[in-house]
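Retro notes (design track)

What went well: tokenization of the new backbones is finally stable.
What didn't: we kept losing track of which sequence belonged to which structure.
Fix going forward: every design gets posted as structure first, then sequence, in one message. First example under the new rule, 99 residues:
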């Protein structure tokens, strides 16, 4: 199971009004058990683009990276793991602390 230990978030500006809704970039530091295929000795983080629209919110894109080297990891998350990330992003945006 993934545990999010720290995060940062930034609003993605859309000066041309091309994107529907608002987009946010989350950087999520992950604590992964040693026996998980996602485990990396140098640590792992997820970069998540999250869309917030009137009708729905969702992860638009995500990528996993090794913490120290910033190396892209070609590993896909399972549906349950994606749900953890989506729930976390949604909760942070709902808290109202992010513009």
């Amino acid at each position: 199971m993934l545990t999010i230990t720290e995060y940062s978030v930034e609003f993605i500006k859309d000066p041309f009004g091309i994107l529907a809704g608002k987009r946010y970039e989350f950087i999520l530091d992950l604590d992964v058990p040693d026996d998980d295929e996602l485990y990396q000795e140098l640590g792992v983080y997820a970069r998540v683009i999250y869309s917030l629209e009137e009708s729905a919110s969702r992860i638009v894109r995500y990528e996993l990276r090794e913490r120290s080297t910033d190396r892209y990891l070609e590993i896909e998350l399972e549906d349950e793991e994606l749900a953890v990330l989506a729930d976390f992003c949604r909760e942070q945006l709902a808290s109202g602390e992010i513009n």
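Added context from the reviewer: The radius of gyration is 14 Å.
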